[in-house]
Amino acid sequence: MTPPSEVIPGRRSSASRTHQPARADNGLPGVFYQREPWVVASELLGKVLVKGETAARIVEVEAYGGVDDPASHAHRNRTRRNDAMFLEGGHWYVYFSYGMHWCINVVCGSAGVPGAVLLRAAEPMAGLAVMRARRGAAVRDTGLCNGPARLAQSFGVTGSLDAACIGTDRSGDLGIIDDGQACAGDPVNTVRVGISAGEAIPWRWYVPGSPHVSRPR
DNA sequence: ACCGGGATGTTCT
DNA sequence: GAACATCCCGGTG
What we know:
By secondary structure, the chain is α+β, with helices and mostly antiparallel strands. The protein has helices spanning 30-33, 37-44, 128-135, 148-154; strands at residues 26-27, 48-51, 54-64, 92-97, 101-107, 116-126, 175-178, 188-190, 204-206.
């Protein structure tokens, strides 16, 4: 399914000017997710989060591990909340934060070994009107998906998707696809945001210069 | 611009 | 009871 007639920022409408056919959207194979979260994380930059008519290019992520990562929800025990982190890579982990926000994670690694990548920010590409209906009519483009809870809200994601499989095309519920566009620039690697344990672990990556990143610098 | 506080529920001490 | 992978709004420069 192709998105509606909406203009997609950052995408050239020059397919007719080249001999190469436009590259098809590709879902990511299961093995992509079945690696350590800190390996998968930076490779998710530039990929496209899709759900219905909404789409956005991922520009900021953070990796979270298991018992060795004091900032991880799986640092202590397996509970009902963090259970999805123990699934095989290729599922969603969606948790409720601060009593009012939802956050979206990509589960990574092998079954039984907790690990996930938090999707912190993305550049809206399609369905911006739907995002505004969820986030607020006056919200700027750069305010739609520049934070983990804002991103989830723009996509209408709640806990009902926790532990679901990651979709591989635009016809599914919530998925990730590769549209062939490379990440613009080398990812910037920093410490993670908003945590009070494991502050020294540099497991955050973002696209340099993107105005859609949640907290530049 | 930068700050401080409040909203709100699940998890853990 | 306190902490929490957050966000919004209203204060002050």
